[in-house]
Amino acid sequence: MTLEGKKIAILIAPRGTEEPEFSKPKAAVEEAGGSVTVIGLEAGTAETVNNDLDPGEKFTVDKAIGDVSASDYDALIIPGGSVGADKLRGSKQVVAFVHDFFAQEKPVAAICHAPWTLIEADVVKGRTLTSFKTVQTDIRNAGGTWVDQEVVVDKGLVTSRDPDDLPAFCAKIVEEFGEGKHAEQAKSA
Is 112 a catalytic residue? Predict the structure, then answer.
């Protein structure tokens, strides 16, 4: 499947986003022909982490969250990392940005702890998803159904548990992003 002509947003948090959950989906989308914009809490660079604690690579932030709109993109990737996911869900601008993708029926992919951002955006109720195992109670409390599977697709929402699931996650996001809008997404928003 080709993503030629598709504009994909990927979020990154300073010193908190899990490096492989950022770099591998980004590379998969680019290899499929998509154009990726790295969006952070502020302009500059953001350092990733490995296993939540070890320093990772630094990546250039293309745009700050205050300078973007969901209408500028065809799909969204939210990487995990417990610290990064917590920083992202703490930003009202990020939460509104995420919510707008659902309202606009656009596909969204979230891995590991990233569903915390989905919960904050109030788009989990009535959905089936997976995540890092410690997030399952949060998903259930938000009205979602949590399942322990490598990758779950629910009406344009793609979720996975952890870095071990990245091959399946990356393949599925390319497929879902290629399909484009999913009318059922807006029902969660």
Answer: yes
